[in-house]
Amino acid sequence: MSESPKKSALSESQSKPSSGNVSSQSASRIRNFRKKKVSIEQLLKDLLQGNKTALGKGITLIESNQLSHQKQAEQLVEGALPYSQKSIRIGITGVPGVGKSTFIESFGSYLISEGKKVAVLAVDPSSSVSHGSILGDKTRMENLVKESNAFIRPSPSGDSLGGVARKTRESIILCEAAGFDVILIETVGVGQSETTVHSMTDFFLLLKLAGAGDELQGIKRGIVEMADAIVINKADGDNQKPARDAKLEFNRALQLYPAKESEWKPEVKLCSALYNEGIPEVWKMISEYREKTAQNGYFEHNRHQQNKFWLHQTINDHLKNRFYNDPKIKSALEEQLQLIEENKTTAFAAAKYLLSLD
Amino acid sequence: MSESPKKSALSESQSKPSSGNVSSQSASRIRNFRKKKVSIEQLLKDLLQGNKTALGKGITLIESNQLSHQKQAEQLVEGALPYSQKSIRIGITGVPGVGKSTFIESFGSYLISEGKKVAVLAVDPSSSVSHGSILGDKTRMENLVKESNAFIRPSPSGDSLGGVARKTRESIILCEAAGFDVILIETVGVGQSETTVHSMTDFFLLLKLAGAGDELQGIKRGIVEMADAIVINKADGDNQKPARDAKLEFNRALQLYPAKESEWKPEVKLCSALYNEGIPEVWKMISEYREKTAQNGYFEHNRHQQNKFWLHQTINDHLKNRFYNDPKIKSALEEQLQLIEENKTTAFAAAKYLLSLD
Asked: Which of A104, A172, B111, B126 is found 20 to 30 A from B183 (Cα to Cα)?
């Protein structure tokens, strides 16, 4: 483990491989920040001009748990907001080993060659444990990371999924205000983080392998239902025939689902990220999606719905935290749980009593 | 529609088919109730002696939205609670047409022949719209309904799923206190009601048809994952071969899932409810489940977990309702949603502001 020290999020905002002790570098950056009493107006100005250092600093403020930083972050995000809408946000998921990094490297490089500015973010609430398993290792995207029109940032760490979600959503706004017009949000194919990423993106892409025997896994976990496209990666060499078979199978599976509100019919594509094959076709598909949903109004509608969802999500989380963290409730809850266990009260009577204390 | 007037829940508590205008009958029953100032002590006493009329009256109190009835219901449920644990609660789901009523008729009659007392409840939050599509039509269980050891009650209606869930859970307690030792809880194979029933039962049974081509549907919706058994109904006549094939397929699908906390390995059974075939085997399986989970402690553990779940569920629902029903919040929420729509604030800033008003 000592070979791979926990990388600070900040280090990623630089476009060349970092050297040496990143954590202490990041700590000193934050100290400088405080010393200079950096002006948020200036930071916003730099950011709007596409300055990646300013963008990295802004995201560091968003990710900080310090109150003064949070206030600055709020100010910054609010200032960036009017400039944040001209992007497409693409969620990318898939189980470990499916080749997410290679896909993003290949797809991102292609987009840049097409004149796009590409930001890559990640949602991985486990990153505080796994030391940033996704995007943490920049060497896996060594070409993309050198591009001046690419910005790569690993998942904010040390937080609940709710916290990671808020920070990522606010980071998206800053990236967009800095002129990044394609935002790729990578997540791992486990747990709730896929649903979270789905609820903050315009297009949701599921990466798959042929013959991995996990066709049913995605269906089971409800991921196929969310997908706007299934891209079967590593469709090269001996894998081409199994990949075509898998394509047929997924196409059949997709027909089981009711039509989407977006009126978009999810597609199955083959690609080889390693050999840069099938990559332009993926972008063509996403462009078609964007055009179609812009025309039928779904694109805007969906973003509004997502905003509403996050508004309610945030409120509900706060209400629960406030209630359960009240010391009066905490001790009474213990008592009531005991009474329930002894079959002396019902869940509903106990709830009613606890609410009467609030 | 005039041929099938909305059936009052109360009418179902009688063991013979009702005649004529049930709603007015039920209304007069409630009036009598009030007039007589029925003693809850007496009702509880009758109920504990297995009196089905008292049980029906008790459930009517639980289902009433009148405050005085609710207080009486609370008192009754609390009194019944210590007597309510000696049952097995079985959730039964399946899409319309799978033969749920026929299965319950056949299974329930078998259980009664084995000396059991069987209560049949339902969770169908749509029943206020569909006029009680499940259990509403008693003629579909015409034998069971005549049994003195059977108690059939349709879903409480005119309520949200949360409301229906609370009422059903409290009704279960009364049924158990009245000596019913097998509680069947039927639900329709759509939406959230299956998850709800799963979270209030000990054993969850998914009814299926062979060759209906919907094998993936249950997997997709996460129902197969919850099932302790898949019972393929109508495995008779020409259907026997397809039923055996479906059994193989479901057995294969079940292997995809991780081991259950209960350590129970879900089984696939064939039955023909119409011809009473395979029914004893279903009960044998459930008895084995019960024995196994009693031994390894899961049975009790699961009921405690369910109680905790419902405690938190109830509290969270109340917290949300209280917040969003505050007139001050209501109008401010409108404003904030408008600001979000105009891209002038973020979901998180809006949430923070709204919470500051509370």
From this structure: B126
Residues of B in contact with A167 (CB under 8 A): none
Name every chain B residue with its beta carbon within 8 A of the beta carbon of A83.
Answer: none
pLDDT per residue as tens digits for the range B292-309: 999 999 999 999 999 999
Q: How far is A82 from chain B (nearest CA, A)?
A: 6
Q: Are A81 and B320 an interchain contact pair (Cβ–Cβ within 8 Å)? A: no
Identify whether B13 is part of a domain.
no
- Tracing tokens 């799923």 back to the chain, one arrives at B161
Q: Do B350 and A311 touch (CB under 8 A)?
A: yes
User: Are A179 and A282 part of one and the same domain?
Assistant: yes
CA B279 to each of CA A123, A249, B94, B110, B187: distance values in angstroms, whole numbers, following the listed order: 49, 36, 17, 7, 19
Name the residue facing A219 among B169, B220, B347 (closest C-beta).
B220
Query: Is residue B259 in a domain?
Result: yes
Q: Tell me, yes or no, whether A47 lies in a domain.
A: no
Q: Please say which residue of A272, A299, A326 terminates a domain.
A: A299
DSSP reduced 3-state for A150: strand
Evaluate whether B309 touches B199 at the Cβ level (below 8 Å).
Answer: yes
Asked if residue B114 and residue B257 are part of one domain, the reply reads yes
Instruction: List the single residue in B with minimal CA-CA distance to A329.
Output: B315
Domain containing residue B320: 302-357
Residue B13 has pLDDT above 50, yes or no: no
